[in-house]
Amino acid sequence: MSKHTNVVVATLSTVVALSACSSPQQSSTASSPSGRSSTSAVADAQTLSAELRTADGRSVATATFEFANGYATVTVKTTANGILAPGLHGLHIHQIGKCEPNSPDPMGGRSGDFMSAGMHYQAPGHTGEPPSGDLSTLEVRKDGAAYLVTTTDAFTRDDLLAGSKTALMVHGGNYGPDAEKRIACGVIGTG
Ligand SMILES: [Cu+2]
Are 157 and 89 a contacting pair, CB within 8 Å? Predict the structure, then answer.
């Protein structure tokens, strides 16, 4: 005996999920921050930036820090290909806003490129690891380009501008001896 089999075609309602991940906010038209800042009238006043250069003065990347809603959105984008070596690079805010080639370590260590920027930045009252200024690793493509957007609430805008200011540093690598090298640096400021 052969049975007649009804083939039921289940109609799968195709839910087209238009990737619902929120896209990064456009930087140009920021909505008004939730009105606590009394001194600054424009949204741009909440943004800091840095231009990163190599020790021999080549411009290699720009960085912006947008402060809103209690955290910072950090964007790092290369402006020239072929300067940064492909691979992973440590990316940190260092404690002193200086980017000087062949400069002395303020702690008395060896001189070297960008050493006068000091150690990794720690926000007031923070002592633990990782330091407040440690950011996500910068991944550089084979063509030497990189683009990173990350977010942190480990410091405020005022923190980064206080005292001797701060600097954003790209290291030669993420592990091993290259991680010690400081290959691109930019003072973080309002410019
Ligand atoms: Cu560093």
Answer: no
